[in-house]
Amino acid sequence: MNDYNDDQKELFLSPKIISRGIIMIKEVLDFDATTLAKQIQSRQISSLEATESYIAHLEKINPAINAFVEERFSEAIREAKRCDELLAKGEGEGLLWGVPISMKESFHVRGMKTTGGLPSRKDQVEVDDSTVVHRLKKAGAIILGKTNTPTLCFCQETENKLYGRTNNPWNLSRTVGGSSGGEGAVIAVGGAAVGIGSDIGGSIRFPAHFNGVIGFKSGAHQVSPAGHYPGVGDTLQQEMLGIGAMAKSVADARLINQLIAETVPPSIDLSNFHISVPPPHPDYPMDKETRSLIGQIRTFYQESYPVDDLHPPYLEDVALFWQWIMSIDGGESVRTIAFGERKNGPLKEWINEKLFHRSEYHPYFTWALLGAKLFEPNPKQILLLLEQLDQAKQKLADYLKNRVLILPVYHRAAPPHGQVYKEIFSVRRTFLAYLPYIAWPNVFGLPSLTVPVGTDEDGMPIALQWITAIGQEEALFQLAQQAEEAFRGYVRCTKYD
Q: What gap in Å lies between CA 36 and CA 33, rounded to an integer?
């Protein structure tokens, strides 16, 4: 991360920011991107000051959380200066003009590496921006650098053999989730104004929930995945993939979606909307704090909207459907990306790492690949899956019309490192009990907005997710914004100030 010299470091703290001191730095760290953009446009704060503040903070906090894996600080400083110069001339345009942001490592950024956490790709420098990065740069955003993921984003805990493990800033012994875990941790400590994640199996929502940030998973095909690594080839897996903000506010989630979505969602009149807030399913585990918060949210909305407590269709089926879709080729497409023509496969590499620590592949990754082969659906199961998904389209279109569904993200706040992995990737198929709430929006390609609403007895964040049909995203933003104001919302972790 520290590939600049002492002379360059002096560029990072201008005389003005030094004179305004630590108070101004903390103000910048607390600002969401929407607020910071307004501050820069009104010239209350310069882009350079904001960029320097984030750089100084990242240098301070990253040794503990290990979330920021590649920086472009020198380039960001130059871009911030240029943004300020153009703004002084009246030429600065863009909804994120001069705003420093972070990117999940899986998105190509010109001049930066995209490794997927593989040592064999540690020198893989990209020559083009992903579509998402291109659109954010066009809006004036300044990219500070990239954040950690599990190997090839193939796990819900963030650890790989190239960059190591990312730690939860609220408690370093707890998981950040994954695969956008580095983003979740960086935004939790205010290391950037906003970040970008991707989600095919909770990869935005796990980290948003565990780290206490806002997370938005777009619906199927609403945001271009071009330039996201690894690519997703299977059509059913493409339906499950969503891309969106990891943020400090619902307003930022809306703003980022407006900038990167293929089509901006239309306005919504909430007067015709219905809300479903079902209690925890009796067959799935749920801690007492989450149960209580679900009840409080239901009571909150009952004051203004029609609310029911019915479980959504297919909740008992989606965890298995998700596993079949992710294992539809036995993991062969991911294995090919990771291993190429190498003779060693997942089993040999898993043994090499567990016994001798001699593999470049993290055992989470190789074990997950073995699981994909184990749970690969047979032709009869694929036929059943396709039939069920086809039947679900019309049923869910009717169910979600003018409706928002509120579900938990997971059964508890962030557990110790490794626990989520054991629950999801056990050969005992415990994913059937732990994944239904996560899997429901993925399997049906639905937009989902995750918002922190409270904490557990240890002070770890707990979030819920707001879900609806594609085209009704504005209902999520409006309703979740009401809960954001009434409940916890984003609270920056200040342990490292």
A: 5
